[in-house]
Amino acid sequence: MECYDLITNIIVIILAILSLFPIYWLITNAFKTSADIYKMPPDILPKSLYLGNFKELFQNQPALKWTFNSFFVSIVTTTLSVILSSAAAYAFAKLNFKGKKVLYALFIASLMVPKETFIVPLFKTVVAFGWVDTYQSLIVPNLAMCFGVFMLKSFFESIPDSIRESAKLDGASEWYIFWKLMLPIAKPGIGALFILNFVTFWNDYLWQLLMARSKGMNTLTVGVAGLMQEINPNIGLRVAGAAVAALPMIIIFIMFQKYFTKGIAAGAVKE
To answer: Taking every annotated instance into account, which residue ranges of this chain make up the domain ABC transmembrane type-1 (predicted)?
Structure first.
């Protein structure tokens, strides 16, 4: 049994190293010149830390503005979408209203429709509102996340109804029950949803590309992709941009990984 556990741990460690190697390779290449990146055989460890790529990225490109745009759009959109998803999930799980089952079935059915299929009418709607090249166009269309409702509904259903009924007898309002009692209990699921939504909105390249017309409104994902399209690209600059774009997602996951693992594990055993 001990030998089996040892072999299992060794396999897990090897797989973990292999899965982390692309991140390591991205970060180390960001500190290399283009010549060193193309060098064959490549250097596993950089011989020196070359900071010229980051200097060019932040001095000759509006990378700070792109980074701010990405953080602002991703955090605001994620926060609002999680709040709306939580409220809708609580309503479907605990409240009784006419057409509840039909409406929830429509929510689930909408998960089968890829965003690309309705991106044209969505784009026309945003143009009609005059929101093109504004933060509203990058935030508002992504607030209604059916997946979040589907994910959190099981968490609220697992909470005993006696908690809500006791609070009702004490004169608590529905909003108080939702905000003060239900949300703290569903914190693991909300943390997992926050990570998933943040990564989704941070990497929402297609929609951000359509809405951000000016260079100052570009997000980091769109800005770095634009650098890739230039003739005779400086590969070191592109790799540095990709590393900067990937870093916030790594930080967010580290910050919320406790809730993410708890949320996924809890969601796996709920009926």
So the answer is: 67-256
Q: What percent of the chain has pLDDT over 70?
A: 91
Sign of the torsion formed by the C-alpha atoms of 164, 168, 171 and 175: positive
Looking at the structure, do residues 130 and 255 belong to the same domain, yes or no?
Answer: yes
12 and 69 co-located in one domain: no
**247, 142: one domain:** yes
Are 67 and 158 found together in one domain?
A: yes
What letter represents residue 113's amino acid?
V
